[in-house]
Amino acid sequence: MRIAMIGTGYVGLVSGACFSDFGHDVVCVDKDESKIDALKRGIMPIYEPGLDRLVASNVRGGRLSFTTDLKAGVDGAEAIFIAVGTPSRRGDGHADLSYVFGAAREIAEALTGPAAIVTKSTVPVGTGDEVERILAEVRPDARAWVVSNPEFLREGAAIEDFKRPDRIVVGTENEEAAEIMREVYRPLYLNKAPLLFTSRRTAELTKYAANAFLATKITFINEIADLCEVVGADVQQVSRGIGLDNRIGSKFLHAGPGYGGSCFPKDTLALLKTAEDAETPLRIVESVVAVNDARKRAMGRKVIQALGGDARGAVVALLGLTFKPNTDDMRDAPSLSIVQALQDGGARVRGFDPEGIEQARPLMADVDFFDNPYAAAEGADAVVLVTEWDVLRALDLGRIARTMKQPILVDLRNIYPPQDLEAAGLKGYSIGRPL
Ligand code: UGA
Fold first, then answer.
1. Quick check: CB of 66 below 6 Å from ligand 1?
2. Is 39 inside any structural domain?
3. Is residue 147 part of a domain?
4. In a domain? residue 303
5. Which residues are catalytic?
6. What start-end ranges are recorded for coiled-coil regions in this protein (predicted)?
7. Of ligand 1's atoms, which has the minimum distance to the CA of residue 332?
8. How far is it, in rounded angstroms, from Cα 199 to Cα 205?
């Protein structure tokens, strides 16, 4: 089957590469010439484990190609995916759909045979209706159907998530479109991934509901962690104790510095806007957004408290800057708020990250960057573990303690048991645990 993927961002590039790996003939289209040129030379625009190899082998196999020519990409494609960005619109938090509608118009103009036009970008309820309206306006003659097929992959585990999804949600009520989508995902349902057919609006909302629920779960355990600290309980054990209940489930119950990334912050806000427009407020999600925003700032204050309440003149080394491990993505990373709070308090901040330094540099003024965690910690008054990268899981804690000015370590991801920190000679602080 021939597939066109419009937009080679995170979702588009991973989905395109994985579809080609399943044997489909995939053309990835993007307006950004330098990105397409780089991809043709095998250079990935993002850091995602395994993606470069997957792309290279499918390009070599002749199943995957890249172009800036949308018309050529769409020519003969039976499934045309829209995977362009939907950033938060400046000022009002609504999803900015101008790229989606722009792509829809160009696709409509370029359409050849019958095709499913599939939105994979996260789009608010009703976007498919608007894409359908554009299609009818531009090409009233076309045999094409607009489908919603949201993507649930996580950055850092994108290929695995795409190839072994818990479910695939397809929003269409048209049988011809459903048949195309069954063919697109045939290799996956051989892997027993349930293909869930819904109405288009239901599929669009399902994506937002999933992200809002996960953001809620994280925020819930983060607030329980705060309570644990005050009443002398251990959030790690509370998390395990509740997570073993199948109705709750153990995943996404890891307390930390607050969720970040390109999806949860943006999607929760966009969902709130949809709810507001529908005059059906989602009060739980409203609280989640507010609590998480406040939490990121509070993490900076937590470090200042560990320093005795005064950060003036202190040197603080942040280890792990990206919003989570295995990505170079800095969007809405908690480290950004922490740096701000520390600098506002008069501290000198240092940063280390295995992959994210280039992305972090323009976002973090007056931060000194180091290419290894030990150099960053040397002479520092406090070390803060912000992201649970594997390289930060097996630090030589004794070495860190010996070279620091003051041996204070704030572990915002609960990587180390408090007794290990103590044994290494560190004064340790963590999340939701008695000291
Ligand atoms: C998230 C969803 O998990 C994906 O299912 C979804 O497809 C994606 O958004 C999207 O909408 O495109 P992602 O943003 O890549 O994926 O990252 P997550 O692994 O979900 O992490 C999000 C944030 O939550 C990170 O800051 C992470 O550190 C935090 N988190 C996650 C916690 O603090 N605790 C946890 O237990 C889990």
1. no
2. yes
3. yes
4. no
5. 263
6. none
7. 26
8. 10
Question: What pLDDT, in 10s, does the model give residues 120-130?
Answer: 999 999 999 99
- Regarding whether 167 and 29 lie in a shared domain, the answer is yes
Are residue 228 and residue 272 in the same domain, yes or no?
A: yes
Q: Identify which of 295, 280, 244, 331 has the alpha carbon closest to the alpha carbon of residue 431.
A: 295
The ipTM (two decimal places) reads 0.95
pLDDT digits (tens, 9 = 90+) for 213-261: 999 999 999 999 999 999 999 999 999 999 999 999 999 999 999 999 9
Nearest Cα residue to 350 out of 388, 393, 379, 308: 379
How confident is the model over 130-139, as pLDDT tens digits?
999 999 999 9
> What pTM was estimated for this model as a whole?
0.95
Cross-strand bridge partners of residue 315 = 348
CA–CA dist 200, 230 (Å, integer) = 46
Q: What would the pLDDT profile of 30-77 be if each residue is shown by its tens digit? A: 999 999 999 999 999 999 999 999 999 999 999 999 999 999 999 999
Q: Is the CB of 261 under 6 A from ligand 1?
A: yes
Residues 143 and 43 in one domain: yes
Residues 216, 85 share a domain: no
Angle value at C-alpha 122, between 185 and 73, nearest 5 degrees: 60
Q: Do residue 75 and residue 165 come from a single domain?
A: yes
Enumerate the known binding-site residues for NAD(+): 30, 35, 86, 122, 155, 266, 331
Q: Are residues 273 and 189 part of one domain?
A: no
> Which helix (DSSP H) or strand (DSSP E) does residue 351 occupy?
strand 348-352
- Structural domain tally of the chain? 2
Distance 170 CA to ligand 1 centre (A): 22
Give the residue numbers spanning the domain of 272: 208-289
Ligand 1 contact, 300 CB (< 6 A): no
155 lines ligand 1 (CB under 6 A): yes
Query: For 412-420, what is the mean pLDDT?
Result: 96
Distance CA 426, CA 418 (A): 9
166-198 pLDDT tens trace:
999 999 999 999 999 999 999 886 667 899 999
* Final residue in a domain of this structure, among 146, 171, 198: 198
Q: Name the binding residues.
A: 30, 35, 86, 122, 152-155, 207, 252-256, 260, 266, 324, 331
88 and 144 housed in the same domain: yes
| Closest atom of ligand 1 to CA, residue 10 | 12
